[in-house]
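User: For my dataset I need records formatted as: sequence, then structure tokens, nothing else. Please produce one.
Assistant:
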Amino acid sequence: MSRVAALGLLLVALLATSARAGDEDEMQGFIVDNTISHIGHDFYSYFADRLRATSRLDFNLVVRERPDARWGSLVTVEFERQVMYRRFLPPNTTELKDEAIAAADLVKQQIIQRKLQRLLQDTTDLERDEL
């Protein structure tokens, strides 16, 4: 009987876990490095370190870079396929760490605002995916 009871408790725990997962089956906490140059990699490193130190990372981000010989590197940060940060970094950037930290703080605030907007969005007539 104890074996059957233990198996039943395990089944209930598994059902509760799968019910809670629901919409959030997606893996979270990734910051994808899609940079090319040394400047881009350094920016990504400082940016990711700052976010990991100040946030739970319950979201995914992509850091992209498009180098340009004239202007430096165009760095963008995307959240759910939307650009949250975009800036040209000159090739001789001396304040790269400060820029990356400011970008991480800005992106974190924008993600928080976007999540709050979703929570406050009126979806009585339509589901979120229909909007």
